[in-house]
Specification:
Blueprint: E1 2-9, E2 16-22, E3 27-34, H1 35-40, E4 48-49, H2 51-74, H3 81-90, H4 95-107, H5 113-127, H6 132-141, H7 146-152, H8 158-174, H9 181-194, H10 199-207, H11 214-232, H12 237-250, H13 255-270
Antiparallel strand pairs: 1-2, 1-4, 2-3
Helix pairs in contact: 2-4, 3-4, 5-7, 8-10, 9-10, 11-12, 11-13, 12-13
């Protein structure tokens, strides 16, 4: 049995208290507690404490410390329950304490996976080019349940998805590129797929692009053919021709157009 001999406020943290006890061998520091724990257990000078009561007090204090860590962690942005749990696990907090902390955070509305998912979708669709499938995957990784993800994705209407995808392809189309139109469109579709847009939205976004005329297509092909020629000019005959064709075909140009440009280059060399 121990008796509380003195309670003092901790200098570095005014919300915590140092409890001094005497268990028969003189006064010594017993443990520190949060102000809420001090009030909860009505700790005061002269109070007798047995081993079981001290364990309960220190356990509740560990819960309070973990809660304060979560308040700080949550002050920067909303988090999912799984993110909070992983944060506490990294701090090597025991599982029973983590469970109790999560329960209290739910009651206090500090964690709410539906509200978190809805906010996540709204922020990402506004700031980044991401489709619903990628957002769904990211929310799954954060431990949000499927039904809540489904509700959250309602924040991302199809017209908003199409607007984001169309803006992306328009910006890409405005840049100079070295591929054939067919290859360029294939790459665009793949990029949009990687960003999590559906096939339907991708096709609609790509269909909105103006078709590139034959003159521009031929200019890009000729430029690539000249680049290929500088790479393979050490070869001759069949070997040279096959390497040129393979290089240009990989960039999406048709064999008919490739043959035409190679013939044009050969005629130009003879002149």
């Amino acid at each position: 049995m121990a008796i509380i001999t003195r309670i003092t406020t901790q200098k570095k943290n005014q919300g915590r208290y140092s409890i001094y006890i005497d268990n028969g061998s003189g006064e010594q520091f017993g443990f520190g507690v949060d102000e809420d724990v001090l009030i909860q257990f009505e700790l005061r000078k002269g109070l007798k404490l047995d081993g079981n009561l001290i364990k309960k007090i220190t356990y509740e204090d560990e819960v309070k410390k973990a809660l304060h860590q979560c308040y700080s962690y949550l002050s920067y942005r909303m988090r999912s329950e799984l993110e909070v749990k992983r944060h506490l696990q990294k701090k090597e907090i025991e599982e029973p304490i983590i469970y109790q902390v999560i329960e209290q955070l739910r009651k206090q509305k500090y964690v709410d996976d539906l509200a978190f998912a809805q906010s996540y979708v709204r922020d990402k669709k506004r700031l980044l080019t991401k489709g619903p499938l990628l957002l769904k995957k990211e929310l799954q990784e954060k431990g949000v349940q499927e039904d809540k993800i489904g509700q959250a994705l309602k924040e991302y209407a199809k017209h908003e998805q199409l607007e984001a995808a169309s803006l992306f392809v328009t910006k890409r189309a405005a840049r100079a590129h070295k591929d054939s139109n067919r290859m360029f469109l294939q790459k665009l579709k793949l990029q949009l797929q990687q960003k999590g847009f559906t096939h339907e939205v991708i096709q609609e976004a790509v269909d909105c692009l103006p078709e590139r005329n034959d003159k521009n297509e031929y200019k890009i092909l000729l430029k690539q053919a000249k680049r290929a020629h500088n790479r393979y000019k050490k070869y001759s005959g069949y070997d040279y021709t096959q390497r040129m064709k393979q290089y240009l075909y990989r960039r999406g140009f048709s064999l008919t157009d490739i043959n035409d440009v190679l013939q044009h280059m050969q005629e130009a060399e003879k002149e």
